[in-house]
Specification:
Order of helices and strands: HHHHHHEHEEHEH
Strand order of the largest sheet: 2-1-3-4
Radius of gyration: 19 Å
Strand content: 5-15%
Number of strands: 4
Distance between the termini: 60 Å
Largest sheet: 4 strands, parallel
Helix content: 40-55%
Number of helices: 9
Structural class: alpha/beta
Length: 213
């Protein structure tokens, strides 16, 4: 049993290391604002050589798309634009990166952004939000009738709010375990969980405060 657990944690550690390398490659690709055929092909080759990473979110989404896009020996202008957009969403807002912070991935966000309600809704917060401290945001949510789960994304979670700036406590520079857990629940458990940005959350708070006043 001990050897089995040891092997499991070794595989998880290697997977996390591979995911960090993948994210680093993607950040490098968007630096000049264009993704060429050769760059896309090399990324696909890397993913093919690192299947455990390719089969895990967020690499899995991009891996499937690259296979389709590169079925021929060319990359259309539309595909180039879509791929660049996906890479920017995956790695986070470039403006945050330029400021010296690690941006959070925008890839998990629900599109279109859902209507946010607070009464009897369960919220989880991850990353750093500009509107205030975690304690302040918790008070705001509770004042509007919601509940905040501080430690984990539960089965009854309604909204995961992702701050624009990534947390230093995250497992990866662009996302952490809460986001991975939320993706799993949303995509496989059909819980009705919504993943929203800090901006959309703040706009929703303002709207609800205006309605109540």
């Amino acid at each position: 049993m001990e050897d089995r657990n040891h092997n499991f944690y070794d595989k998880e550690r290697l997977l996390d290391r591979g995911m960090d390398e993948f994210i680093g490659i993607c950040k490098g690709l968007i630096f000049d604002g264009i993704v060429t055929y050769d760059e896309a092909k090399n990324l696909l080759i890397w993913l093919e050589s690192n299947k455990p990473v390719a089969e895990k979110w967020p690499a899995s989404n991009l891996y499937k798309k690259l296979i389709i896009m590169l079925a021929t020996d060319a990359l259309s202008t539309d595909d180039e634009g879509e791929l660049l957009s996906d890479l920017i969403d995956l790695t986070g807002n470039p403006k945050v990166m330029i400021s010296g912070n690690n941006p959070s991935s925008q890839l998990p966000l629900c599109k279109p952004a859902p209507e946010v309600y607070f009464e009897n809704a369960v919220f989880v917060i991850t990353g750093n939000l500009e509107m205030g401290t975690r304690k302040f945001i918790t008070k705001v949510i509770e004042s509007l009738g919601g509940e905040v789960s501080l430690k984990t994304v539960r089965m009854d979670t309604n909204f995961l709010v992702i701050g624009d700036i990534g947390s230093k406590a995250w497992m990866h520079s662009t996302h952490g375990r809460k986001i991975e857990r939320a993706i799993e629940l949303r995509d496989t458990k059909r819980t009705g969980l919504n993943i929203i940005s800090e901006t959309h959350f703040m706009e929703s708070v303002v709207k609800h405060v205006d309605i109540e006043s």
